[in-house]
Amino acid sequence: MPDATCIAPLSPTAELDQLRARIRRLEQGRRAETKTLSIGLPELDAALPEGGLPLGAVHELVAADVSDGAVYCLAAHWLGLAQRREAGKWVLWCGRTEHLYAPGLRLAGLDPMRLVTVRAPRDEDALWVLEEALRCRDLAGAVAEIDSLGLAQSRRLQLAAETGGIGFLLRAPGVAEDLGASAAVTRWRIAALPSAAGPAPGVLAAPRWRLELMRCRGGRPASWIVEGEDGAPGGFTLAAAIRDGSPLPARARAQG
In what helix (H) or strand (E) does residue 23 lie, and over which residues does it extend? Predict the structure, then answer.
């Protein structure tokens, strides 16, 4: 007589349905645990699937022009946001030069008193430093300046970030058209735009940039016009013409 406790094997279709249900539960759990870093501009946060920059992830920042320091201001601001979120923790900047301009970092929202700087002229050295920094739970985040990046290297960085903090890769100017595949969660590009007319004769107009979300895992590309403003988060704010609907100069309009 057959054992009454035996359970009939599931059909291949039923096994597949169970596997799909398990995957859905795991994905829902990961989404629930995902933590984000608010950019400080609601319009930009709203464009990201999680409502901000995902923590435990790597993000690429691409400079459109070597003469425009906006990408460094952007990186310093976002690194400063991570620094303030994890009060008491340090951040790391691995760059081409030994010295960063401390007053400029403060204006961008980064505290230079809790910053570790590393000089790494070669990409392979900078990538190694960033990987080790991302694995360190005593750091709130890290930046590395590099020229080239392979897919396998980006995957290593992303895996390291998942165990530690947030990482930013500053890509060299001139590579925006040949970036290649990457495991980074987001990729941004910032380019200078002509300034609007000054508020009054003899008064300089605020500098403007086009900030473009080139790629976002689970999201869609988008772009905004931002301008420098004293007192704004990191010195950036959405351009007044975007906020109040006034027309932009023809050359300054963002493309779709």
Answer: helix 12-33
Interatomic CA distance for residues 228 and 81, integer angstroms: 17
**Full DSSP string of 68-133:** -THHHHHHHHHHHHHHHHTTT-EEEEEESSS---HHHHHHTT--GGGEEEEE--SHHHHHHHHHHH
Domain extent, residue 222, equals: 51-252
What CA–CA distances, in Å, run from 208 to 88, 177, 225, 233, 242?
33, 22, 7, 15, 12
Decide the pairing of beta strands 186-193 and 166-171. unpaired
DSSP type of residue 250: G
The CATH number assigned to the domain holding 102 equals 3.40.50.300
- Token pair belonging to 78: 């976002």
Q: Is 62 buried (19+), middle (13-18) or exposed (0-12) by CB count in 10 A?
A: buried
Rg for the chain, CA atoms, rounded: 22
Domains held by the chain: number = 1
Residue 36 lies in a domain: no
Q: How many Å apart are CA 50 and CA 61, to the nearest integer?
A: 19
Measure the CA–CA gap between 241 and 255, rounded to whole angstroms: 15
Q: φ, ψ for residue 144 (rounded to 5)?
A: -135, 135
pLDDT of residue 140: 94
pTM of the model: 0.77
**Residue 256 pLDDT greater than 50, yes or no:** no
What pLDDT is attached to residue 254?
A: 33
Per DSSP, the three-state class of 220 is coil
- Please state the φ and ψ torsions of residue 70, each to the nearest 5 degrees: -60, -35
- pLDDT reported for residue 199: 60
